[in-house]
Amino acid sequence: MKRLLWTAALAVGGFALGWQDQGGRSEPQHVLLVTVWFAAIGFGFGSIFAKRRPRKGLFVFYWAFTLGLVAIIFSGFVPAANVTTQVVVAGTIGALLGLIVGVAQVKLSSSQSTADRPVGS
Predict the structure, then answer these.
(1) Taking the domains of the chain in order of start, what are their residue ranges?
(2) Which of 23, 31, 45, 103 is most exposed by smallest CB count within 10 Å?
(3) pLDDT above 90 (res 65)
């Protein structure tokens, strides 16, 4: 349920942002792209914060995928001459950061679960 709420909420936000960003031009493909992009970010966060945790590998993928998409928002801060390079570099940095966060959470989660087990099991 949380995944659906995150996806829907961010899709609506993306739609509003894409619609406002048009500046009076009629570009439905731009609105659709921003809506799907934000919905994908919402799906990722909804999957990360869901009550039932996905498998470890999928959990790490969700972190990398989501932070890679979020990092693209900040691609304007990457010092590169061409926009494509900025987007690729920002997305890669975000995905690597998400990979690190996901692996760290899986390790932390597994170390806590072994600490909670009684001795001898």
Answers:
(1) 1-52, 55-116
(2) 23
(3) yes
